[in-house]
Amino acid sequence: MQTPHPKNRRKSALTTLAVTGSIGSGKSAVTKLLQSLGAHIIDADVLARVVVSPRSPAMRSIVRAFGAQVVQADGRLDRKALGGIIFASAAKRHLLERILHPRIEREFRRQLKALRQRLGAKGGVIVYAVPLLFECHHRFEDFDYVLVVYAPKRLAIERVMKRDLCSRSEALRRYQSQMPIAEKVRRADLVIDNSGSRASLSAQVRKLWSNLRNCSVTPGSVIIPPRGRRVGSAQ
């Protein structure tokens, strides 16, 4: 899967940017910073919650596939119970993806079309925050650029442990269920390094925003992991 070649992209007042990365890399932090600067956000995690609302077709398919143990008393999806199943089995994880991702993509395109119509000639930046872009999203023509948020493995795992209050082995299992970050960086148009301070991250995002608004983005120019650090290493 490859993103469109830069020479085929047209400069326009409306830019669509996909933001992805590994678990724990800081995709949400980058998305929130872009939103604070004026970007219009479509969040794949929010879409996933929409498509698995109680009694929805996706929810019924999940119950058939994984059993009533993944349903809470109020009819909502028990994400912790489902996560325990899918992160222990690649086959079951792929089954869930087959149930969810076509529905998530349809909802994404519906919202993207509505945003494009609403923004029209006045333009703007639309950001799609999507954890499994390369793993599950096959229509890169939806985006002008793909941005990968990079963090080294060790740091990403520590963030997941702190955020989800889980063990190192559980965080590592989740991390390893995704495409290696080095491969995501290789496929990206743009890379932001989130291995440093909040101030450093904010400065990179502001630079990216300025380039996006001025139609002066050069794929590969923003921002590469620090010199001497091998992308995807455990350092």
Major sheet, described briefly? 5 strands, parallel
What class do helices, strands and sheet pairing give?
alpha/beta
What is the H/E string? EHEHHHHEHEHHHEH
* Mean pLDDT level: 87
The tally of strands reads 5
How far the N terminus sits from the C terminus, by CA atoms, comes to 28 Å
The appropriate CATH architecture is 3-Layer(aba) Sandwich
What is the strand content?
5-15%
> How many distinct folded domains?
1
Q: Portion of residues in helices?
A: 40-55%
How many whole angstroms does the radius of gyration measure? 18 Å
CATH class term: Alpha Beta
Spatial strand arrangement across the major sheet: 2-3-1-4-5
In CATH terms, the superfamily is: P-loop containing nucleotide triphosphate hydrolases
Number of helices: 10
- Low-confidence runs of at least 5 consecutive residues: 1-8, 224-235
The fold-level CATH name is Rossmann fold
How would you sum up the global shape?
globular
